[in-house]
Amino acid sequence: VQLQASGGGLVQPGGSLGLSCVASGTIISINVMGWYRQGPGLQRELVATATSTGDVDYADSVKGRFTISRDNTKNTMYLQMNSLKLEDTAVYYCKAHQMYYCSGDKCHEDTVRYAYDIWGQGTEVTVSS
Which of 47, 66, 108, 118 has the most CB atoms less than 10 A away? Predict the structure, then answer.
């Protein structure tokens, strides 16, 4: 099981960018998926989360500008980022929290596994004029 983030790039202030995170493998369920970011010289911080039932939450710094969404049928999470600011420059990471999956291609009671947190690799977002 792994998470693959994509969509980063260079964008001007005020511009928009969309990120995607795909969880691959034989996945049964993911309780919460989230986006985090780590700016230059900063600690990793939470950006937004989305539960399997559709509840979402955002960091105050991105409220009204970013939109998180999930397609549970595709085990995919998205982050639409609008009105980007210089301070949004960071490496963006996705995370799956409380995941049930199967260790092989097919699921049966002996192959079900649980993962508390699984991180994807980062995708870099640079906001610059």
Answer: 47
